[in-house]
Amino acid sequence: xxxxxxxxxxxxxxxxxxxxxxxxxxxxxxxxxxxxxxxxxxxxxxxxxxxxxxxxxxxxxxxxxxxxxxxxxxxxxxxxxxxxxxxxxxxxxxxxxxxxxxxxxxxxxxxxxxx
Length: 115
Hints:
By secondary structure, the protein is mainly α. The chain has three helices and no strands. It has helices at 2-14, 25-55, 73-109. The longest helix has 37 residues, at 73-109. The chain is flat and about 70 Å long. The mean pLDDT is 77.
């Protein structure tokens, strides 16, 4: 809804002046594709997980491990991989946020010229 609002305001503000140049249609189309593809990909992933539950018939996977028995190696590997990916995303966001903070501090501390 917010995306439609922004596009609508872009069209309304420039209506009659220069056509619809207030909207970057290439970016609007990309956003539309992402809004369509994201739920579709999520549905496919959920269907795959449901299919894995139906086809992987190892009932030990659906019960708590007994005492000191470790989980199967492939599950431990999958958990390690997913954990490492999460850490990578967190680190990437920290770097991006620190770069933006540095730019904002630099921009706010630079003297402005009035004249």
